[in-house]
């Protein structure tokens, strides 16, 4: 299963990080942790190897931070 994340247009260079956390707050996967140039990005996150459950996808770029709940049912 792939989880697609579209990042809004980044206007200036920033460090971008996208991480997946389990229900107890442990980071289970770092998808991106790099400086990105201005532009729009799309990322496919492969979550096939994870068990059913609730996960949280956290995106950080400069002052912008967001967390999205992901429910994985196999």
From TrEMBL:
Domain Secretion system C-terminal sorting: 13-71
UniProt superkingdom: Bacteria
Pfam families: Por_Secre_tail (PF18962)
InterPro entries named in the record: Secre_tail (IPR026444)
The protein's name: Secretion system C-terminal sorting domain-containing protein
Native species: candidate division WOR-3 bacterium JGI_Cruoil_03_44_89
